[in-house]
Amino acid sequence: MEEKDWNLIAQQAVLEDEAFDELYEHFFPRVYNLIYARVKNAATADDIVSDVFEKMVQHLAEFDCQKASFATWLTRIATRTLTDYYRWQSYRQNVEWDDVFSPAIDEKERPEGQLLIKEGKRELLLALGKLGEREQRIIELKYWGDMNNKEIAEVLGISPANVGVILFRAMGSLRKLMGQE
User: Fold this and answer.
1) 128-181: per-residue pLDDT in tens?
2) What is the rounded distance in angstroms from the CA atom of residue 122 to the CA atom of residue 116?
3) Which ranges form a coiled coil (predicted)?
C-alpha cells in the first residue's frame, strides 16, 4: 500500500472539500489521542480538538510543506492550543483514573479481571507521572499521537536520534518504576 502524500492533500484541502475530509478523518484520532492524553477529560479534549481543527481551517492556506510536514504543522497547532488551554487554567484538574480511560467492559470478563486491568493502568499512569516533562511528552507523541521519531523531533526541535535515545531511556525507566526489570 502506497503512503499518501499528506502535504499535497493539505494543499488541495484549501479548495477541495474531499481533500479536507480526508485530512480530518486521518488526523482526527491522532490529534484527539494526543490532547486526551494530556487533559484526561473527554469533554475538555473535545473542546480543545475542536479549537485545533478550527485553527487548522483558518490557517490551512498558510501551510508550507517546505518548512515542515503537514503532520508536524498540525501537531504544533495542537500543542500550542493545549499550551493556551493550560495558560488560561489556574490549575490542572485532578481526575479519577476511570475518567481518564473508560474502555468498554467486555461482559464476559469477570470483575476480578477488570480490577487487575484497572490496577495495571493506574500503575502505568503513576509511573508516567514520575518521568520528566520531556520524556512524558515524547511518549505521548509516540504512542497517543502516533508519530514517528522524525515527526517528534520536528515538533520538539531536537534530532530524531535524540528522540530515540530519550524514548529508549524513558521506556526503561517506566519498566523499572513498574517493577518489570
Assistant:
1) 888 888 888 888 888 877 788 888 888 888 888 888 888 888 888 888 887 765
2) 10
3) none
Checking 156-164 for CB contacts under 8 A at 24+ apart, the result is 163/138
Distance CA 119, CA 127 (A): 12
- Are 153 and 69 contained in the same domain? no
**Structural domain tally of the chain?**
2
d(C-alpha 177, C-alpha 128), whole Å: 9
Those residues whose C-beta lies under 8 Å from the C-beta of residue 39, and which sit 6 or more positions away, are 45, 48, 82, 85, 93
Please report, for the domain that includes residue 87, its CATH number.
1.10.1740.10
Domain that holds residue 13: 1-95
**pLDDT (tens digit, 9 = 90+) per residue, 26-44?**
999 999 988 888 888 888 8
Residue 102 in this model has a pLDDT that exceeds 50? no
How much is the pTM? 0.58
Q: 163 and 85, same structural domain? A: no
Residue 79 lies in a domain: yes
